[in-house]
Specification:
Keywords: ATP-binding, Helicase, Hydrolase, Membrane, Nucleotide-binding, Transmembrane, Transmembrane helix. The chain has 13 helices and 8 strands. It is of the alpha+beta class. It has a 4-stranded antiparallel sheet with strand order 7-6-5-8.
Length: about 350
Amino acid sequence: MRSTKHLTQKLNLHFHLDINIITIDDVLYVIDCGKVKVKNFHPQMNLPSLEIQWVSKANAKQRRGRAGRVQAGHCFHLYTAFHYMSAPDYLPPEMLRTRLEELCLQIKLLKLGKILPFISKAMEHPSVAAISHAIESLVKLSALDAEENLLPLGYHLARLPMEPHTGKMILFGAMFCCLDPILTVAASLSFKDAFTIPLGKEEAANKVKTKLAGSSRSDHIMLINAFKGWEKSKKKGCARTYCWQHFLSENTLQLLHDMKKQLAHLLYDIGFLASPDVKHQSSNKNSENLGLIKAVLCAGFYPNVAQIVEVANDYRLLYNIKMMVKDRSLVMPHPKSVNSRKTYFDSVWMVYHSIPLKKII
């Protein structure tokens, strides 16, 4: 990063400054808010979550080291010394707080034996329940059999750098010739949401999303249509205007575009495509068939299926509509979903990628 001119003040905002490998030479002051976003996975509920937690001592030390990397500087920690002393030395290893299905598939692909004994050799290994849950999930996905033998689907999923359910979805997308839209959804879910909504513009953004979704009532179809619109506007030379009007990040869309190309090449390399071109006609004969696209999404995300139910006499809710998932717990659409304010649906069934948990500290 370039230094600014003399007598110019520069402000850099980072949420993960402690893990940022970029050295900013002229930073003299660091203000540490003491919080960090951490990905967690709850095997009992089969729920991934992105939670805001307090930093560990190691995080605080790394942030302090960013102040005055090449000259004298100061760091201000916005929490008490008592809180710092009571903080853990390190955050739990990633293996203890993420899904294990990808790791399990790699173990089987490399023929390293039974999954549980192998993972248990780690210095800080996940619980037996978490490992067993991952194995059970892969068996239900038809990636492993009951004896933990790698099935054909599991072999191909192990060669894809993504969560197995998303991998299954893109394999189905290739086989059913609706590659382009399915890769859009897969890239968006694997990377990040392309929407950037300024403070105070939430209502306007919700209207744009609803318009993009059309009659589909689907967040996934909305993503597909948003990406299609960007591609068309890019050809016309008005991509920046399109992104501004639809609250989209052009940089994120370009990264998603590149990810789609990489995934298409992977599918071509393992023999699922006749051409590595995302737009190739043979791979997209059914890319306008919304019914088939929804079926492929369901096949990939299953068993993440929810049933819409009516909860009577619940005065706390704006609408008396909730969804019941497989463990019979009740959930509601995320506020950013195009279905968050709907009261009527063509079907009582919905498919979902994940159920985020909110944690306030």
